[in-house]
Design goal:
With 502 residues, the protein is of the alpha/beta class. The chain contains 16 helices and 23 strands. It folds into two domains: 12-258 and 476-500, Aldehyde Dehydrogenase, Chain A, domain 1 (3-Layer(aba) Sandwich), CATH 3.40.605; 262-456, Aldehyde Dehydrogenase, Chain A, domain 2, CATH 3.40.309.10. The N and C termini lie far apart (78 Å).
């Protein structure tokens, strides 16, 4: 057990990055607390609408020149940014562990996935090309060009403070737009670090801006007529009722990725040992604070008689409990730790409320994570241990609502169709996974499940940067998604030219 060196010493005083300069905000200041140590590691300003407007003016000013910069030259800035991120890989990862609480392994994964988006966006000279057809009529040609639009706001959630804004920012900038990022005020430090690297990479002033804060910054972005579009990732109520609705009213493009309630099906022909390993990272990785985390494990008895089903079910539960109770909980900078704390006490208490609700509604608590045991010598304020319920039914609150913590609900489904109904009756549609050795069940699953990200023998079906990040029903509002080609289309307007020369 060895604690890695903390990259943040003392208390950082975070600033806004506007027009290539680091500015103090006149707004109130909040503490950023490391949830494992409960120490204040930074102070972040809650900026005002006026400060949003200043950033918008700077971005507007920068836009014409950035738009005129050839895509190849824009891509070179992103190549430099990628190189700088690689150089700072470990520091960026440790910052995430300090600001969020996730294990260093989870942070390194997040850093890698973030950098991959920058990497993909460097392909912009190829990705942004249009198409054409000669002689649509005799002597007349037609072609499509993709042009940057202008200014975009990017609003991030707390659970992936480094990666999520990078689902959008590199594509927006590569296509010739200017951006204003509002990181989550709960853990904004890694976004500040990225902006420092963007500055060092030579991205011109006004192109990449950061305005820290909360709802005033969000409404400032939505209501500013110079902002052309907004990308939001966070909870469904805020995403749908504030951002999607607000962007509809103000006529902006929008991507809203919302909350989730993810199911994982285990079929009788699944390879149990590998399935349980995948489940541990899916249910407990990032302390369950992942929009792709499974929360409901459905043990499916397709093709089994009652006795066989009981024996299969008991085997799954025993193996699940055995693995979950061995997870090492503690400070994520200890690289032997497998699960860190919740982001803050409020979030931990929310998870505890769900656990109490589960008990009240008749679910059986077979592993109680409220009995906190951690392997590092830290205050336990934000920690919970892995929790498991069985005898959960689909109508229970814990089976329906997003818990966003290390809680697994084990549910019985007598056959495959019953399991699919459970998933499709849930209001969310972010992701679902199936563990099976049967191509038939895998295909039926992929075909019928109303979720945007599907895992087949994969616990966390996180799309790579060159594919869009899916989402359906109450998990997604919009048309085009973040990442990959969808992002290129979102950040560009399509112009159609029909030409004839006399
Ligand atoms: P949140 O909705 O509380 O906050 C998201 C962002 O909105 C933050 O920047 C926050 O400062 C801002 N915000 C919060 N309340 C606001 C309000 N009333 N008006 C305007 N802005 C407001 O979400 P969170 O707790 O930071 O993130 C967790 C949620 O995000 C979970 O529901 C999770 O499933 C979801 N999430 C979804 C995806 C996805 O791809 N679908 C990815 C990551 C996280």
């Amino acid at each position: 057990m060895a604690l890695l060196e903390e990259p943040i010493k003392g208390i950082l005083s975070l600033k806004n990055y506007i027009d290539g300069e680091w500015n103090e905000s006149s707004g109130k200041i909040l503490d950023v607390v490391n949830p494992a140590t409960m120490k204040v590691i930074a102070r972040v300003p809650i900026s005002t609408k006026d400060e949003v407007n200043t950033a918008v003016e700077a971005a507007n000013e920068a836009f014409p020149e950035w738009r005129n910069t050839p895509p190849l030259a824009r891509a070179r800035c992103l190549f430099r940014l990628k190189e700088l991120m690689e150089e700072h890989f470990e520091e960026l990862s440790r910052i995430q562990t300090m600001e969020h609480g996730k294990t260093i392994d989870d942070s390194r994964g997040e850093t890698r996935r973030g950098i991959e988006n920058v990497e993909v966006a460097t392909g912009i000279p190829s990705l942004m090309t249009g198409y054409n057809l000669e002689d649509i009529s005799s002597g007349i040609d037609e072609y499509v060009i993709h042009q940057p639009i202008g200014l975009f706001g990017i609003i991030g959630p707390f659970n992936f403070p480094f990666m999520v804004p990078l689902w959008f920012a590199p594509y927006a900038v590569a296509t010739g737009n200017c951006i204003i990022i509002k990181p989550s005020s709960e853990d904004p430090i890694s976004q500040i670090k990225i902006a420092e690297l963007a500055e060092e990479a030579g991205i011109p002033p006004g192109v990449w801006n950061i305005v820290n804060g909360g709802r005033d910054v969000v409404s400032g972005l939505i209501n500013n007529p110079e902002i052309n579009g907004v990308c939001f990732v966070g909870s469904t109520p805020v995403g749908r009722d504030v951002v999607y609705k607000g962007c509809g009213e103000t006529g902006k493009r929008v991507i809203v990725q919302g909350g989730a309630k993810n199911f994982s099906l285990i079929m009788p022909d699944a390879i149990l040992e590998k399935t349980i390993t995948a489940c541990m990272t899916s249910f407990y990785g990032n302390t369950g604070q992942r929009c792709l985390a499974a929360e409901n494990l459905v043990v499916v008895g397709e093709g089994l008689n009652d006795q066989e089903y009981d024996s299969f079910y008991n085997k799954v539960v025993d193996n699940f409990i055995d693995a979950a109770s061995k997870i090492r909980v503690g400070y994520g900078l200890d690289d032997s730790v497998q699960m860190g704390p919740l982001r803050d006490v409020e979030k931990k208490n929310k998870v505890i409320d769900f656990i109490e609700k589960g008990v009240q509604e008749g679910a059986k608590l077979i592993l109680d994570g409220r009995d906190v045991k951690i392997v590092t010598n830290n205050p336990i304020d934000c920690f919970l241990n892995p929790t498991v319920f069985e005898d959960v039914t689909p109508d229970m609150t814990i089976a329906n609502e997003e818990i966003f913590g290390p809680v697994a609900n084990i549910i019985k489904a007598r056959d495959f169709d019953e399991a699919i109904k459970m998933i499709n009756n849930n209001r969310y549609g972010n992701s679902a996974t199936i563990f099976t050795s049967s191509g038939r069940w895998a295909r039926e699953f992929q075909y019928n499940v109303l979720c945007g990200n599907i895992g087949i023998n994969v616990g966390i079906p996180a799309p790579m940067a060159f594919f869009p990040f899916g989402g359906m029903k109450d998990s997604f509002f919009g048309t085009l998604h973040g990442q990959g080609r969808d992002a290129i289309r979102f950040f560009t307007d399509t112009k159609v030219v029909i030409q004839r020369w006399f």
